[in-house]
Amino acid sequence: MRDRILTAAVIGATALLGLAAPTGAQAAEAAAPRGDLNGDGYPDLAVGVPSGQVDGKASAGYVHVLWGGPDGPGRHGSVRISQASPGVPGTPEAGDLFGSAVAVADVDGDGTADLVVGASSESLTGDAYAEHGTVTVLPGGAAGFPVGWTVARGPDEYARIGSVLAVGDVDGDGAVDLALGRRLEESGTAVLRRGPLTVDSPDTLGGPITQAMFGTVTALAVGDFDADGDDDLAMSVKALESRSVQVLRWQGGVPERVWSTPASAAALAVGDFDADGADDLALGYCYPNYEADVPDCADTSTGRAEVFTGGLVKVAYGSAGGGFGARTQEIQQDTPGVPGTAEADDRLGTALAVGDADGDGHADLAIGDANEAVGTGKDAGMVTVVHGGPTGLLAADGTARAVGFTQNGAGVPGTAEAGDLFGSSVHLEDHDGDGDGRADLTTGAPGENSATGGVWLLPGSAQGPTATGSRAMSPGSLGLPASPTPRYGQVLGRS
């Protein structure tokens, strides 16, 4: 399960939108590429819409899958799935937030990607205000998504299971596991729902992996940080008096901490930025733990530890020889080569995605900053793509090779306006399947047009994502039913 951040569904495409799903004849017999949900050879795009209305129920939520194809997603049909769809467990209720987190991964080992969908505020009792939360698996395939099953349920009314999740075989038993954030009455923790994630497997949650008193788990990610072939788990924890990002390796069925730093992250992303065979970990909007003797991700230029103006992305590098995190790099808007200017209201790295955007064999990092001001437009938003290379995301002299995109950029559709929140979510994947290995950039702007929202697609090129040929997709242009403030683009599925 390499290069995955899965922070991050569906009947045949004749349902709801009346659009034809690819037929079985179109499906590839061989293993489909990463992110391909129907086996036709093209990675697809899954958009979680937890704020969407379903059957008149506000924020019941749904997932919208846009099939990939030669022209990228949005031009080859799509399908909307909710708990009102046949074969999907549950019933749409106001505030369920189905689609609050979406992962795209092959959980059943059949070579085709599947959807893992969180409904973080679903109540499992008669109490409409309870937030037990559930996670549903919707297996992909050439026939669409005819069935689904629940693989995790919140054990109490404040668990919010499904708000933060990651997928991978972290315990090394050959079955894909589900790592979840779980809230307790006065604390938060991460738990493991061990695989297999099949319809007949018990949906039992393991005990706490870590504990955050008066806090929560803000992000989870899976990667092979020592290149031993086994998945490891990274987690960010934010509590009232402590913050940390930890990397855990399972030994003999028990998690063992191999790295920790006194700072939290709003997002985590995994990729091999220096192409040395071991995964690296990016910490988005890295925030120092001021209670630590030496807080990480802190600006000490004034003689005291402070958060970096505008935000910071920290990268800890893996190694096939062990010693994860022995080498690190820090990226901010004042880093040479990074576009923009660090400002107090910026939140650099609140969204992250990894992919090879220029086809050079090095993973690149897309960094979302939805709170970036563009001109006078506060919270208009910006996305920056930093390219990987032999020394990682920064050259030996500390400079970055990067490009930034806003809605005011040449060739990018639309106009940057206050509150658009362009860059709230980011995704890198080669949706047009043209074989060039260059990932396309997708980003969401859930505040666009009074919280109607939309997603923008910027094609990959030899130089990385380009505004040339870029396009915007909105709920209206995609034929979705009208819904009050759906905030389309708030969640993009991660593969």
What does this structure look like?
The chain is mainly β and 495 residues long. Helix content is 1%, strand content 32%. It contains 1 helix and 32 strands. The protein has one helix at residues 448-451, and strands at 45-49, 62-66, 78-81, 98-105, 114-119, 134-138, 149-153, 165-168, 177-183, 187-193, 210-213, 216-223, 232-238, 243-251, 254-261, 263-264, 267-271, 280-284, 287-288, 298-299, 306-307, 313-316, 328-331, 351-355, 364-369, 382-386, 402-405, 425-429, 440-444, 455-458, 471-473, 491-492. The strands form 9 sheets. Strands 3-2-1-32 form a 4-stranded antiparallel sheet, with no helix packed on it. It has a 4-stranded antiparallel sheet with strand order 4-5-6-7, with no helix packed on it. A 4-stranded antiparallel sheet has the order 8-9-10-11, with no helix packed on it. A hairpin with a 2-residue loop joins strand 14 (243-251) and strand 15 (254-261). The protein is globular and about 55 Å long. The protein starts with 44 loop residues before the first strand and ends with a strand. The model is unreliable at 1-30 (pLDDT under 50).
